[in-house]
Amino acid sequence: MTLALLFPGQGSQSVGMGAALADAFASARDVFAEIDEALGQNLSRLMREGPEDQLTLTENAQPALMAVSVAAARTLKAEFGFDIGKAAFVAGHSLGEYSALCAAGAISLTDTARLLKLRGQAMQRAVPVGRGAMASLIGPKTDLVLAEAAAAAGSEVGVCVVANDNNAGNIVISGDKAAVDRAIEKAKELGARAIPLNVSAPFHCPLMQPAADEMAEALGEARIVAPAVPVVANVTARPETDPEVLRRLLVEQVTGRVRWRESMEWMAGEGGVARFVEIGSGKVLTGMAKRIAPDAESLSLTTPEEMETFAKSL
């Protein structure tokens, strides 16, 4: 059965994440220890014990989510014999793309941790607190046409663009707070639910250009090699393997739309994927997969028991 591995993004973090893996497997503990050393920070303790407000800070949540995903991927190989090369594709939602690249061997674990720490800090620095906002639009009429209409409604008072095209019933807009607020009003008029998101910065919009510039410099110095399996990139919604293309797309991703719905539709369609497996913290992408590709099997691997069951099923 053709399968793809999915790696979650920000919002999937929770206190206690990765603890069961660390308690059960040395391979997971090794990943957490290497990341702690790379960052000069006891991130693994923050993941296990909190406090939650520190874990949810962008600069901590990003490397923490990657840590759990990569620990799970390495444990699958070390303990259960599942090599990532058995997947047809890997894909990650926003920061999850770094997890996918690391798990596929394109970027070292140490470099990935440092890049994500910087990415979180750069995104926070890019826009003063209070200037930006994001909102989730939900409903049967919430498609890209509605999103663009909502964005246009806010254009007179600043930037407002589609940040995440998650699935047919859920997109996220991002930009200047005044523009997003006006877009929320427009979306409600068109019959959508609009939920302001509790985020520290307006991600995946042109306001993030200063962060993209910082990441361009950092990624320019990072060693990136061809991944073991193609990575379906957020920016193109297509599989990529060329290291220089991947480097460029990671920069573009900071300000660009996360084309998750299109990525999933391509994998389930032309890519022939019949099984989507989410690796890491939470089950957000599993839920999206069930909505986007209902004919495919979708599951998440968050516990040692789920990993063992998955390995036996292959």
What does this structure look like?
With 314 residues, the protein is an alpha/beta fold. 50% of the residues lie in helices and 16% in strands. It contains 14 helices and ten strands. It has helices at 19-24, 26-39, 43-49, 52-55, 58-80, 96-103, 109-126, 144-154, 177-189, 209-221, 243-255, 260-268, 284-292, 304-313, and strands at residues 3-7, 89-92, 132-138, 160-167, 170-176, 193-196, 231-232, 239-240, 275-279, 297-301. The protein has a four-stranded parallel β-sheet with strand order 2-1-9-10, with helices on both faces. Helix 5 (58-80) runs antiparallel to helix 7 (109-126). The termini are close together.
What attributes characterize this protein structure?
alpha/beta, 10 strands, globular, 14 helices, 4-stranded parallel beta sheet
